[in-house]
Amino acid sequence: MARVRLEHVTKRYDDQGDVVTAVDDMNLDIDHGEFICFVGPSGCGKSTTMETIAGLTIPTEGEIYIGDREVTNLPPKDRGIAMVFQNIALFPHMDVYDNISFGLRLRDYPQDEIDRRVERAADIVQLEGMLNRMPEEMSGGQRQRVAIARAIVREPDVFLMDEPLANLDAKLKVHMRTELQRLHKELDTTIIYVTHDQEEAMTLSDRIAVLDSGQLQQIDPPLTCYNEPDNLFVAGFIGSPSMNFIEGTVTDTALETPNFSLEFNPTSVEGVSAGDDVTLGIRPEDIYPGELKSEVPDPSGLITATTDILEPMGDEIFAYLLLGDGETSMSQELATNDQLLMSIDPDSDLEEDEEIGVVIDRRNVHLFDSATGEAIVHDLIPYEADSTTSGSEVESDD
Amino acid sequence: MATPTDTQEQSSDGPLQRWTQSAIQNPDKVYRALFYAAMVFFLVTTLFPFYWLIVLAVTPEGNLLSGSFLPTVNLFGVSGTFPLPVPKGFNPGAFVTVFEQVPFHLYMLNSFALAVTTTVIVLFVASLAGYVFGRLRFPGRALLMLGILAISYFPPAAFVIPLFQAFAGNAPITIPFTSIPLFTPPRMLNTPGSMVLPFSALFMPLSIFILTTFYGQIPDGLEDAARVEGTTRLGALFRVIMPLSAPGVATAAVLTFIAVYNEYFFSSIMATSPEAAKWSPIVGGILSYQTQYTTQFNLMAAASIVGVLPVVILVIVAQERIVSGLTSGALKE
Q1: Alpha-carbon separation of residue B1 from A98, A104, B5, B7, B303 (angstroms)
Q2: Nearest CB to A92: which of B228, B232, B331?
Q3: From CA B25, how far away is CA A191, in angstroms rounded?
Q4: What distance in Å separates the CA atoms of residue A286 and residue A378, rounded to the nearest whole number?
Q5: Which among B214, B229, B241, B242 is the top mutation candidate for probing chain A, defined by the most A β-carbons within 10 Å of its own β-carbon?
Q6: Could B244 and A93 be called an inter-chain contact, meaning their C-beta atoms sit closer than 8 Å?
Q7: What are the ABC transmembrane type-1 domain coordinates in residue numbering (chain B) (predicted)?
Q8: φ/ψ of residue A296, rounded to 5
Q9: Is B331 on the interface with A (CB under 8 A)?
Q10: What is the pTM for the complete model shown?
Q11: CATH homologous superfamily for B94-332?
């Protein structure tokens, strides 16, 4: 059983007198056989966290356990891990067979055992007949498969994958993604996977660990991260295109934003009271054109907006809407109060610079504390609704 | 005098002007001409001494000092001096006599053993140092590197007297400027130790510098991969970093080997007399053909040629390795 636990792991670098905290008090408990993705923007500490698990970096504080053993200060070779690197890192002076069998030969396995395992690993990643090639003679995808074979051949307790698909082209990436999932099913090993691509994280993982500035923001299954983000950062990071954020103030009967108001009963929602400054979060697919109002379970009032830019994606159209006086705001802040991104049906005959009315699905409105960024609720129940059912914080409606 | 030529060239478009014109239009021609000129110069200066050695070696001893090496040739009634020295007589037996008169193979073996031992020690220690300087970051790295390089700026002669005293093992080593004894070193004169140790120290800085440059260029990912796969840092150095730096390692090895193989100054002092049994090197052997009353230039020349052969072979072999290492360019990760 290879359960991986991180307890209060902290890594600080001394950068010419400045102390940089790359990982800040990280606590993780990863179950055997779980596929975990570390996701976050560049410099969020996800790679450093993985390096501490791999043993390539020794944490400044905290303990790391793999299985029942404390491995905090063990060298990488004694941790029962295998790793796939972003830059693939095949040994250029060895052929595929030597690359795959490198770890086994170091551990003095008998030759027939090495052959058997290399054969099987090559079979899993579909590299039969290429064992005598040199890495430089192979394509990016093939090299990546060699790197994966090199990792699985050792039958490690834990797989660490540091952005293994980052250097592949888009098509190959999608293909390798499915192969990785198949691999995980076949091997039943714990996999820790680092990526900055939230889409990869959503599709691959059992649970996503969202990291920002060295701190764990949320660790939950993909859909929970998507539907019930713990804070503004997770809400903005998970989902593509990202969630709309609009700042507003709670009154006795509604949420007032600069351009529209959303009616609801603050007393029925736990954690919200009149006078609070909140940030409203709404995903593009939870905004509908006004004519579909009847199909929306809990629609808001009609909000007038002007279409700005349309981005047809084939299966949907992303429409950038301008609220209020139609002036584009160039603000780079997370909450762009007068802009909304809406996802609409591809058959829509909507045109640019057209004035339309839209409604918001109040069941999928997220409220965040403007000061702390913490999530307050993930749905606004209309004030006509029965107050006994309201106030639920974690009503999942996916 | 310039005026008539000028007018002549202007009027008839003389050969110099034509050549200048074409050189301006086609500068590659000039570059090629310069390349050949430089090439010929270097070939002559490097190969002529070898040719001269061969001429001396095959000339019988009795003919060495009489007459000229530049023969007079008489071609169709025109007589003149042939510009290239040629042997006066033919005596290939000198290459055998070389081994009969003096155990020259033993001197060669001495030089070879000293060179190989020194090269192995230098490569091992310089690899460790190169790894540290090239791949680790620590305060004072640049200063330490500078200190190591500074050793190679000292003239080796500066170390001879203290080293001789130390290796003689007659008196205890004292703390500088005092007479407080530290320890009495073992007597190492006339043993390989008294030569390998100073050679290693003297040739180390260059190798460290070369290997630092090469090891510093190996991507971190490869070392990480090796360590995850099951090597220690040291294992990664010798299994991955070193093989991938083969051109650098070969360069450092060849330079060290040749320098030690040709070394004479230290070994002539550390070996108290030029005897093979006292680890005197090749040059010591060559000088043994010179006695108080005679100098057998033909044997010295023959011995020099024989002595140079191993280095020639080494360079040819290593050059192939260096070239193949440079051209494969496999370091894209």
Answers
A1: 77, 85, 7, 11, 56
A2: B331
A3: 67
A4: 12
A5: B229
A6: yes
A7: 108-318
A8: -85, 130
A9: yes
A10: 0.79
A11: MetI-like (1.10.3720.10)
Q: Nearest Cα to A215, choosing from A327, A386, A49, A101?
A: A49
Query: Is some CB atom of chain A closer than 8 A to the CB atom of B235?
Result: yes
Inter-chain CB proximity A85 and B227 less than 8 Å = no
Tens of pLDDT, residues B239-258: 999 988 888 898 889 889 98
Find how far residue A244's CA is from the centre of its chain.
Answer: 17
**Model ipTM value:** 0.79
Q: Give residue B331's identity as a one-letter amino acid code.
A: L
Of the candidates A75, A107, A136, which has its C-beta nearest B330's C-beta?
A136
- Asked whether residue A76 is assigned to any structural domain, the reply reads yes
Verify that A258 and A146 share a domain, yes or no. Answer: no
In chain B, where does DSSP find H-type helix? 2-12, 15-25, 27-58, 94-101, 104-135, 141-151, 157-168, 193-217, 220-229, 233-236, 242-244, 246-261, 265-270, 282-287, 297-328
Contact between B330 and A134 using a beta-carbon 8 Å cutoff: yes
Tokens of B44: 């002559």
Query: What is d(CA A28, CA A32) in angstroms, rounded to the nearest whole number?
Result: 13
What is the tally of structural domains in chain A? 2
Q: Which residue has the tokens 């049994």?
A: B277
Q: What is the pLDDT of residues B91-115, one digit of tens each?
A: 889 999 999 988 999 999 999 999 9
What CATH code is carried by the domain that includes residue A274? 2.40.50.140
- Which domain, by its residues, includes A131? 4-232
**For residues A168 and A173, what is the distance between their CA atoms, to the nearest angstrom?**
6
Residues of chain A whose beta carbon is less than 8 angstroms from a beta carbon of chain B are 54-56, 75-77, 81-83, 85-93, 102-103, 106-107, 134-136, 150, 154, 160
CA–CA distance from A270 to each of A264, A265, A281, A381, B159 (Å)? Answer: 12, 10, 17, 11, 85
- The reply to whether A183 and A94 lie within a common domain is yes
Interface size, chain A vs chain B, as Cβ–Cβ contacts under 8 Å: 76
| A71 CB-contact burial (10 Å; exposed 0-12 / middle 13-18 / buried 19+) | buried
Residue B73 bridge partners (DSSP): B80
- For residue A166, give the nearest of A66, A106, A259, A88 by alpha carbon: A88
Same-domain status, A172 and A190: yes
Q: Hey, what amino acid is at B58?
A: V
Answer yes or no: do A204 and A269 share one domain: no
Strand extents, DSSP E, A190-284: 190-195, 207-212, 215-220, 244-250, 254-256, 261-263, 277-282
Angle between the N-to-C axes of helices A96-106 and B220-229, in degrees from 0 to 180, rounded to the nearest 10: 50
* Residue A194 and residue A163 in contact, taking contact as beta carbons nearer than 8 Å: yes
The answer to whether residue A293 is domain-embedded is yes
Instruction: Point out the residue among A56, A77, A92 whose CB comes nearest to the CB of B231.
Output: A77
